[in-house]
Design goal:
The chain is mainly β and 596 residues long. The protein has a single domain, classed as Neuraminidase (6 Propeller). It is 7% helix and 31% strand. It has helices at 56-59, 93-96, 115-124, 219-225, 363-368, 370-377, and strands at residues 25-26, 30-37, 67-74, 81-88, 101-104, 107-110, 126-135, 138-141, 149-151, 156-160, 179-181, 186-191, 197-201, 256-259, 269-271, 283-286, 291-297, 301-303, 305-313, 329-336, 341-346, 382-383, 385-390, 397-401, 425-431, 440-448, 474-479, 485-489, 502-506, 516-521, 527-533, 539-545, 582-588. The strands form seven sheets. It has a nine-stranded antiparallel beta sheet with strand order 16-17-19-20-21-26-25-24-23, with no helix packed on it. A six-stranded mixed beta sheet has the order 11-10-15-14-13-12, with no helix packed on it. The longest helix is centred in the N-terminal third of the chain and has 10 residues, at 115-124. Bound molecules: MU-OXO-diiron and calcium ion (3 copies). Residues 188, 281, 283, 387, 389, 476-478 line the site of one calcium ion (CA). MU-OXO-diiron (FEO) binds at residues 89, 187, 202, 280, 299, 386, 475.
Length: 596
Amino acid sequence: DKARAAGGSAFSFTEVEAGVDATHHVAEGYDADVLLRWGDALFADSPAFDPMAQTAAAQERQFGYNNDYVGFIPLEGSSEHGLLVVNHEYTNPHLMFPGLVTIVDGKVKQGALSKDQVDVEMAAHGGTVVEIRKVNGKWQVVPEGKLNRRITVNTEMQLSGPVAGHDRVKTNADATGQKVFGTLNNCAGGVTPWGTYIMAEENFHGYFSGELPAGHAEAGNYERYGVPEGGYEWANFYDRFDLSKEPNEPNRFGWIVEVDVMDPTSVPKKRTALGRTKHEGAESIVAENGKVVFYLGDDERFDYVYKFVTDGTYNPDDRTANMDLLDAGTLYVAKFNEDGTMTWLPLVHGQGPLTTENGFASQADVLIETRRAGDLLGATKMDRPEDVQPNGVNGKVYVMLTNNTKRKADQIDAANPRAENAFGHIIEIEEDGGDFTATSGKWEVLLKCGDPSVAEVGATFSTETTKNGWFGMPDNCAVDAAGRLWVSTDGNSNKATGRTDGLWAVDTEGDARATSKLFFRVPVGAEMCGPLFTPDDETAFVAVQHPGDGGEDWDGHGRPSYYEDLSTRWPDFKDDMPVRPAVVAITKIGGGKIAV
Ligand code: FEO
Ligand code: CA
Ligand code: CA
Ligand code: CA
């Protein structure tokens, strides 16, 4: 171990003051440079961003909206030259399109979207693959990069694994049940050991509208997933988002998508063996026996934590040999026992209740209805499982549980110990024998989140944690090369406490365990996504999502829209430029590892 800072913390930096204002703040001694903003050029021929006249064609050549997951795939092993992969989770039309929002009788009124605006939204979703390089200590985009790519709702993808070609994924446009266009609501994700980019499809239900034909066989399935939610207006222009016209289309979303970034023309694959849920992300680790283990959260109140263990083993010497590892393996769902042990229950057709009598005719049915399979197996209903991160240094796994205000007092259990859990918690798993493929393990609560100075909250940060150091709503997380845990939040922003979301360094070892320090905070209205460290720990990439957005906690900020009464125009602060989501690169001034 490196020499530890005061209190035994593994992190050495001067904490940022919690608070809220129009811009971001990083710990003293660090630079936080905006690297990529919504609309920025990704190719030599990308049109300049014109926020007053954005088009889908332009958007397809530019960085998308609401950056969430950030991954880094080194080129030739470099920590200073590689591919940045970024998910574009969703769109905020009221912040994107001028004139969409008006004030009528003092009330915010949002107009209907035109087809052109919907097309922009569809092109602003998906992902970005872009070459970046560090020059004289500063990161730059390489617009000539041969591997640069935008993935959107119109990108052709292939369903692969056990569900491919099944009747339940066939549509009028695709009689094969194998060819899908696009990916939706890509929240967190991952990079595999063989250097592919994983995009997790999360809240896909929001894109569908309309009603299933009466008595349709998918009614129960869709109810379990909240389909349709109708939050988007895409069905007004595209039949496939209208359940009355394309009843099977929702079964083609909610998957883990794998992208071979080394071939910009590759067809991304929806790896159905990993199940269909509102996938938060898919972070992975190679187990001692060479199998690869993916940890998966299903982000909904009372839903489950999963892991997937490949049948095959990882070949570090032959990238091609790994390319279909995700098509065969075992998906497990977690049962957290009251005594601190846990069991990983296999979701395998024919085993236990996953039978024809219960409506599962094959493994494809088990995977299409992953949630119902988990229900029947008696998995533990969690407080919104977000990022689940294996730590290769200490051998443990960290589960972010963001919150669940709907949990009642008679629904608490050891793994979800607080009723009306407004601030979330973090669970630490230790697989039996330190083997990530194990089907049993132990777990404990690392941290109950929230303000420790408010006794009834019941937070369990260490006494070393300052008033700036506590947080609520853990969402994304990262483990750096030194094995240290970093947690970013969604919903910590609160008018009453005058704080924003941010990135916190959380000790997991020794006397400092459960000590947290604030390293970076976002501008008003934003949430914190990413984070991701380069292999040399000298850069932390963070994603500032939906800056300037409104919502209940910020009435009068963010809404109505960027051209009136907005609290921030981050990161440009120009009258003719809207507030923009952006990825930020954090480096130590003068160079060196972060927080050491
Ligand atoms: Fe997109 Fe689970 O947050
Ligand atoms: Ca998330
Ligand atoms: Ca992560
Ligand atoms: Ca989030």
